[in-house]
Design a protein that fits this description.
Blueprint: E1 5-6, E2 10-11, H1 12-21, H2 26-33, H3 42-50, H4 53-57, H5 63-76, H6 84-104, H7 111-115, H8 122-131, H9 133-161, H10 174-198, E3 202-210, H11 213-220, H12 222-239, E4 244-250, E5 253-260, H13 263-277, E6 279-280, E7 283-284, E8 287-293, H14 301-315, E9 323-325, H15 328-349, E10 353-362, E11 367-379, E12 383-385, H16 387-396, H17 400-421, E13 428-431, H18 441-452, E14 460-465, H19 471-482, E15 486-492, H20 499-504, E16 509-512, H21 514-521, H22 524-539, E17 543-547, H23 552-560, E18 565-567, E19 575-576, H24 577-589
Parallel strand pairs: 8-9, 11-13, 13-14, 14-15, 15-16, 16-17, 17-18
Antiparallel strand pairs: 1-2, 3-5, 3-8, 4-5, 6-7, 10-11, 10-18, 10-19, 11-12
Helix pairs in contact: 1-2, 1-9, 2-3, 2-5, 5-6, 5-9, 6-9, 11-12, 15-16, 17-18, 21-22
This protein binds ligand C2E and calcium ion (2 copies).
One calcium ion binds at residues 490-491, 511, 513, 547.
């Protein structure tokens, strides 16, 4: 692991070794190496650390340990003896340090063991001097202690930044600003706790950030980005009055805690802050504000902060406002997301994903003409999880690719099983998330599967959701078409559909969305549109299939406009593949 650089481009280890060479003892050397980070000058640091040598002079506990604990204490702030939580936390951290040190040093914790001689005995001390044992033996302890300290500080930072960073990612010389920021966050939290317990008014946590701040950084340079942050901090300093506290948590994320009486007082405060910071040097800055109003004062501070953070993240999905108040459901949806992200890989390896099949029927023939493969997640803890609960999340993180490959393979396996059983199967359509259309992998995977299971290409159909396509995506759809796949346009009428799409489309079959049909059925005009769509699809020689068909009335209407293919609860719900297999077999025999 790379060690962080301190002043003059030296690492903590280099600085400590330099001090050791200048005849400072190990606790002075170690504490001195971190002095600048802690905002101390070297002289003061030596004055403080001289006393840590006591154990060492007795030949017992190594000075690196005492000095390290002092650094930890100052950096992480275990100072308030009245604060039980802090005390427990502090004890945990010091225990963790000592344990790690013991491990790294193979159990050598005492000066006597590290040096092989006892400093407290004049005769042995003479040998230590004569043989230069300090410079030979002590660096081992110094390196061990500094390595652990740096890692612990980086972990703490990771904690408060909520993001995963490695120490190697902290730029040189940043350790100092990191420790300073820790100090500011601590002071902020102390002030907030005091406020919460002293006021009888309402308390709000307001967390905000700058939308697309990364893009601003890229466009105008990081220096300009820093200027914007300074500007926000200055403005907050001028705006926050007594009993209003703010802190810059990390990068462009800020937290304000204030007291208020009425909701409109709070929102007008935010609006007024927003008007001051939403423009810097003619660049429009858009903020997202998440607000949590404290209900239970006994709740941990961190939890209150988290709730404001959840509201801030939720507000990004709203295009109508940039202020959102925390709702209980954010917590739920965050837990749900976490659960999915933590369990999705196991779900693949343990085969928890299952393929369900929903039959497609011909109204005229009253028989099965195909089926759609739909994923289900049978989770040992939660039971059945439906796609709407996890697909949007795994589409965001790209994991949908793996799930789709899994289902595509299940579909191919099923088709092969039918062929082996010797009866006529029907085409199975699989869903192709739009995530696949961004690269070439899906074509290779599909070709690979078709070859592996020896499936006629026409038997595996692809459902792709219609939308106002970006060019790259339509290109990919075209490519799939050229590869010879049958393409179904999913959810027609749910989004950007226009009749133009039909003219330009490489699709073979249009699937009418359930909602579209329902909406069209309520008026004469709607029926007319439906008729026109059906007529046009027909003229263009495309197939038409209605989804989500539930009633006899819908069947009649579809018949009257010349749509014969249907899928929906009226005929059958999605079912486990074994059940569908039996259904097909029966149809074949009958
Ligand atoms: P979709 O592709 O439009 O699939 C049709 C959905 O409508 C299915 O929900 C199906 O169970 C439901 N449905 C079918 N008939 C009826 C009906 O008569 N009435 C009602 N109310 N609903 C009906 P499901 O299985 O929950 O899937 C939801 C969506 O999740 C799918 O919508 C599709 O977009 C996505 N999805 C499902 N499986 C996969 C998959 O393996 N891969 C990908 N990428 N997406 C999938
Ligand atoms: Ca579909
Ligand atoms: Ca659909």
């Amino acid at each position: 692991m790379q060690t962080a650089k301190v002043g003059y481009g030296m690492t903590h280890v280099e600085k400590a070794e330099q001090l050791l060479h200048q005849q400072y003892h190990c606790s002075q050397a170690l504490f001195g190496a971190f002095a600048e980070d802690l905002g101390l000058d070297l002289k003061t640091a030596f004055k403080i650390s001289t006393c840590f040598g006591a154990g060492m002079r007795q030949g017992s506990i190594c000075g690196c340990i005492t000095a390290s604990l002092m650094v930890l204490g100052m950096a992480l702030g275990f100072y308030d003896s009245q604060d039980r939580e802090l005390e427990v936390y502090g004890n945990q951290k010091t225990d963790a340090f000592i344990q790690a040190f013991r491990q790294k040093m193979n159990g050598d914790m005492n000066c006597r063991d590290i040096l092989g001689k006892d400093v407290s005995k004049p005769a042995e001390m003479a040998v230590i001097r004569k043989e230069g044992l300090i410079l030979q033996k002590c660096p081992r302890a110094l390196h061990a202690a500094i390595g652990i300290l740096e890692q612990m500080l980086a972990d703490y930072l990771k904690d408060i930044r909520e993001s995963s960073i490695d120490l190697a990612d902290i730029p040189d010389n940043e350790m100092q600003s990191v420790i300073k920021r820790m100090g500011r966050v601590r002071t902020f939290r102390r002030q907030v706790s005091e406020l919460i317990f002293s006021t009888s008014r309402e308390i709000a946590f307001i967390q905000f950030d700058i939308r697309k701040f990364k893009i601003i950084n890229d466009l105008y340079g990081e220096k300009f980005g820093d200027e914007i942050l300074d500007f926000v901090i200055r403005t907050l300093r001028e705006t926050c009055l007594e009993h209003q506290f703010f802190v810059n948590l990390r990068s462009d994320v800020f937290m304000v805690v204030m007291e208020f009486d009425k909701d409109n007082e709070l929102t007008s405060w935010i609006h007024s802050l927003d008007s001051k910071i939403s423009n810097y040097k003619n660049i429009k800055l858009q903020m997202s504000y998440g607000v949590y109003v404290v209900e239970d004062k006994e709740m941990e501070l961190r939890q209150m902060e988290d709730r404001a953070a959840m509201a801030r993240k939720a507000v990004k999905k709203n295009i109508l406002t940039n202020i959102t108040f925390y709702k209980e459901q954010y917590k739920e949806s965050l837990y749900n997301r976490k659960f999915i992200e933590e369990n999705m890989q196991t779900a693949i390896t343990e085969r928890q994903f299952m393929m369900y099949l929903q039959p497609k029927y011909s109204i005229a023939k009253n028989e099965i003409i195909g089926a759609e493969a739909l994923v289900r997640w049978k989770n040992p803890e939660r039971g059945m999880i439906y796609p709407d609960q996890f697909i949007p999340i795994i589409e965001e993180n790209g994991f949908i690719k793996k799930v789709d490959y899994y289902i595509w393979e299940e579909a191919c396996r099923f088709l092969k099983k039918c062929a082996q059983a010797g009866f006529q199967s029907c085409p199975i359509s699989v869903n192709v998330s739009r995530v696949h259309l961004l690269d070439n992998e899906c074509i290779e995977v599909l070709d690979g599967l078709i070859e592996k299971y020896a499936i006629p290409k026409g038997m595996l159909e692809l459902e792709i959701t219609e939308s106002a396509d970006t060019q790259q995506i339509s290109m990919k759809v075209l490519q799939l078409k050229e590869e010879g796949f049958t393409l179904l346009m999913d959810d027609f009428g749910s989004g950007y559909s226009s009749l133009n799409i039909l003219l330009e489309t490489p699709f073979d079959v249009i699937k009418l969305d359930k909602k579209f049909m329902e909406n069209m059925m309520v008026s004469g005009k709607g029926r007319l549109i439906l008729e026109q769509v059906a007529g046009m699809v027909n003229k263009l020689d495309l197939g038409l299939l209605a989804e989500g068909v539930e009633t006899k009335e819908q069947i009649e209407l579809l018949k009257s406009i010349g749509c014969d293919q249907v899928q929906g609860y009226f005929y059958a719900k999605p079912m486990p593949q074994e059940e569908f297999f039996e259904l097909l077999k029966k149809q074949n025999n009958g």
